Amino acid sequence: MATRLMSGRAKVVVYLPSLRAAVRHFRAFSSYDERYPSDHTFTVDSDSVLGDSQRQWPNSQLGPLNPRDRHFPLPGLVGTATPQQHQLAAPPVKHHDVDLLTAELPEERRISILHQYLHTSEELEQKELEEEGGLLGEPSPFDVLECAAQQCPALLKKDFQELFPDRDFNQDEVSVITISQKTNSDMIAWSVDMEEEREELMEHFVNASQEICNSLTEAGYWADFIDPTSGRPYIGAYTNATLYETDERYRSLGFTIEDLGCCKVIKHHLWGTHTYVGCLFTNAPMDHPIIQRMKQMRRFNGE
């Protein structure tokens, strides 16, 4: 599973070919209602229930004498009981001899069940790792985005509380969603191409984050993201606290911050300094389908 592949802390990671794929996933949950997670509407075809005899009644030859339903041929739609042809005999009682010398003792049975459970769990975990390893372990050559959701580290809750003074992080369960976009340019050295690409990716992140936060809000949760230009919450109230992408706190979220002396740069564990990172916050819990089904995003997008 992604939680075991990526971290000891609850974490879900998926690689995607575009940022729009992530937006579509969260938008699909904008009308999700926890009270009715499987709310479906079913339509019943009355013709298939009533049968041909009722749809053609009265019969053109028999007129009203023809019964509406062949299962109830008597007047008043009364049916006849079907006589039981055979009386079922009681199954013979099997007598088993109890072997007191070789019978499994309760303690031995508990050990056997525990061993079977552990052995089965290991097989299931290995199967899940094999199935999801290709999906979540490494991106394909066409993937240019990593979307990672994880439970907010306890050590950072107090710091992040300063970013959102109108929220109570002591009471809320906070999930952090980081979006890493792979870049063509190396973000470690300035150039015209790097600056233009960075501005474009920044605009994409802001637009996509607004849609994701709107979708989470419509689903009944609080959500906000860090404005890359100011390091402050984009939606929430103004605060003096900031969180830029080279902040040391990103280390606790799975990134490396490299100090070059003249500046700092964030490094992705796969793409190095060829990455642009943004961050969102929400009180949607990690076990919510909107988070857990992130693992299916790539599969549904046909990658």
Automatic annotation (TrEMBL):
<dbReference type="GO" id="GO:0009235">
    <property type="term" value="P:cobalamin metabolic process"/>
</dbReference>
<dbReference type="Pfam" id="PF10229">
    <property type="entry name" value="MMADHC"/>
</dbReference>
<dbReference type="GO" id="GO:0005739">
    <property type="term" value="C:mitochondrion"/>
</dbReference>
<protein>
    <recommendedName>
        <fullName>Methylmalonic aciduria and homocystinuria type D protein, mitochondrial</fullName>
    </recommendedName>
</protein>
<dbReference type="InterPro" id="IPR019362">
    <property type="entry name" value="MMADHC"/>
</dbReference>
